[in-house]
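Case 277 in the screening queue. Each case pairs one protein sequence with one candidate compound; here the compound is copper (II) ion. For every case the pipeline is the same: read the inputs, emit a complex structure as tokens, and attach any notable structural observations.

Predict complex for case 277.
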Amino acid sequence: MSANFMRYLSSSAVILGILVANVAGAAQPEPWQMGLQEPAGSIAQKATDLHNLLLIIISLISLFVLALLVFVGWRFRRDANPTPSKTTHNTTIEILWTVVPVLILVVIAVPSFRLLYYMDETKNAEMVIKVTGNQWYWNYEYMDEQIAFDSYMLSDDELELGQPRLLSVDNPLVVPSNTKIKMLVTANDVMHSFFVPSLAVQTYALIGRVNEVWIDVPEGEKIYYGQCNQICGVNHSFMPIVVKAMAKDEYQAWLVDAKQEFAILDLPLPIQLSAVN
Ligand SMILES: [Cu+2]
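Case 277 output:
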């Protein structure tokens, strides 16, 4: 068998593996991906709808401007216009090219503001998770459950079959599906950014400040991959985010074990002291 054919076979196997991994339920970048990742949760769905609306509008504008340019280039070429026109004003067209863009902006602004306020509304959250960015790992604290743990990227030799390289972690952020979860995002050392594309969540993690976001992961067991999205130092690329969604009863079962393993008194010294005092 030729080397090319072997290469073809092995790349097909890789692609097949990626497809199988996606069927098994993981939201992650794909080779040759063109659009956004498949939206998960109500914010992501609305963000994708807005994106699709904008895509149509900007495509129509680009085609219209291109058509105008081609028409002008052809209609007013030197051969056809030995004596150039001296026209400088046309009131009708000036009103049109002011009013029409304003109307387009209004059409964009209405759904845009609607989404912005929808994302901002963290009231009625059913649970709260505090997310802290560190150089170079994430810490997740389930405040009501009194558990907290660090989440480090897996190195290449720790990866198991099907786990994507540079995106997998030792302790994922486990969340119940169909639940409105408020996240309090902050940082310990430098700026980080909590970014999970398929959930349409991206917010800065700032030292001494808390930013609020919320997610509602849809039904079903699925893993959502993200990354720190703020250049935060030499290992910036190596602090991925893994959100692992599971059904509510499975989440409760996970909590029982997690309370043993990640009880908040296992945190570093300063937090232990404040808990004791
Ligand atoms: Cu970072």
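Case 277 observations:
- The longest helix spans residues 42-75.
- The mean pLDDT is 88.
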